[in-house]
C-alpha cells in the first residue's frame, strides 16, 4: 500500500481565509506565486481538489507553462497531471471545465454518488465508487497502487486540507500568505476545528514570492498504535539516512535510529558503530543519550531502519530488551532482520509479544538495505 507524497497547497489571507464570500474566486496569489504553483503542478503526478472547490471555482487545474508541459512530455509523462476529485454526493456539474480540459480524470465517490456520476459525466472520466463512504486512506492507496501516483498536489479546499492533515495523511504543507484581509466571519478557512496532530510542525523553508510569503512545513508527530502517519514515514527515512553514515563493516549491519516524543520533538538519534565504538547498535546508542527516567519515553516512538535485534554476542542486552526496559511502547521499522548473522531473529515478534506496537513500513526497506548491500547474499536488488 504505497501512498503518494501528499503536498497540501493553498494561498491564505492574513486573517487565515481561503476565499471571500463573493461569487468570484478570490485571487490571493500574485503573478509570481501563480507561476510557482504552476511549477509545483508540473512536478506532480496528480492534482486533487474537493467537490466544494469544483462547485465554487470551476477550475481547470492545468499546467499553464508550455515549457513545463514540453518537459513533462520529453520525460515520458503526460502533458498534464491526472486530475482527481472527491465527492460523497455525486453532485457535480458535468459541464464544469475540470472534465473538459487537460488529460486523465478520476472522481472518487460513494456507491450512491457513482450511480449519479456515471450518468452525468463524460465517458472518458473514471468514476471510482468506494462503498457507502469515501475513506481518504483508501483514495490515497488507490492513487498510489493502481494509478501509480508518486506525488499528489492537493489544491484545496478547506474541508479536504483539514481532513488530510487531521488524519496524518499530509506529508507537507505549502502555504502562500497573501498581504490582504478578507474580514468575513463566514468565508472559507484553510483549516477548520477538530483534532490535529499534536506539537509543532517543522519549518522547511520560507521564501518571498512577489508580495506573498511561501511557508513550507512538515508534520512531526508520530502516529499512535499500529497505524502509520506521514510523519512516521519521514522519521523512518531519517533513520535510513543515518544508516548510510555508519562506518562500513563486513561483520555487522549499518542501522540508523531516531527516538521521537509524542509531540514530534526529536529526543535522540544515532547510528551503528557511532563515536568510535565498533559494536554499538543504533537503538542502543540513541537510548544511551537519554535519561532513563525521561517521562517522554513512555509515549515515544523508536524509528529503526532495521528491526531491533533479539540476540547479540557483543553485548549482554539486545536492543529489543533495551527498548522494553526504557518503557518505549511503539517502534517503526523498515526491514525485518535477515538470517545473515542471527537465524530467525524476529525482533518485531519479541517486542509485539510484550505489548509494543511494531509498525513495518516496507516502502522504506530499499533505503534501509542500501548501506548493507555487501552483506546480502545473493546481492539484494529489491
Ligand atoms: N486560496 C486557495 O488556495 C484555495 C481556495 N479554495 C477555496 O476553498 C473553498 C472550497 O472549500 P470547501 O468548501 O471546504 O470545499 P472542498 O474543496 O474542500 O470540498 C469539500 C467537498 O469534497 C467532498 N469530500 C471531501 N472529503 C470527502 C470524503 N472523505 N468523502 C467524500 N467526499 C468528500 C465533499 O463533496 P460533496 O459535498 O459533493 O459530497 C465535500 O463537500 C472555495 O471558496 C475555494 O475558492 C480552494 C482551493 C484553494
Ligand atoms: N485562489 C488561489 C488558488 N486557488 C486554487 O486554484 C484553482 C484554480 O486554478 P486554475 O484552474 O488554474 O485557474 C482553484 O480551484 C483552487 O484550487 N490557488 C492559489 O495558489 N492561489 C490563489 O490565490
From TrEMBL:
Q: Which domain of life is it from?
A: Bacteria
- Keywords of this entry: NADP, Oxidoreductase
Reported EC number(s) for this entry are: 3.5.4.26
**All copies of domain CMP/dCMP-type deaminase, residue ranges:** 230-344
Instruction: Note the SUPFAM superfamilies from the entry.
Output: Cytidine deaminase-like, Dihydrofolate reductase-like
Q: What class of enzyme is it?
A: hydrolase
Q: In which pathway does it act?
A: Cofactor biosynthesis; riboflavin biosynthesis; 5-amino-6-(D-ribitylamino)uracil from GTP: step 2/4
One of this protein's Pfam families, by short name? RibD_C
Question: Which reactions are catalysed by this chain?
Answer: 5-amino-6-(5-phospho-D-ribitylamino)uracil + NADP(+) = 5-amino-6-(5-phospho-D-ribosylamino)uracil + NADPH + H(+); 2,5-diamino-6-hydroxy-4-(5-phosphoribosylamino)-pyrimidine + H2O + H(+) = 5-amino-6-(5-phospho-D-ribosylamino)uracil + NH4(+)
- Family membership: In the C-terminal section; belongs to the HTP reductase family. In the N-terminal section; belongs to the cytidine and deoxycytidylate deaminase family.
Query: What exactly does this protein do?
Result: Converts 2,5-diamino-6-(ribosylamino)-4(3h)-pyrimidinone 5'-phosphate into 5-amino-6-(ribosylamino)-2,4(1h,3h)-pyrimidinedione 5'-phosphate.
Descriptive protein name: Riboflavin biosynthesis protein RibD
Source organism per UniProt: Streptomyces macrolidinus
Q: Source organism lineage? A: Bacteria, Bacillati, Actinomycetota, Actinomycetes, Kitasatosporales
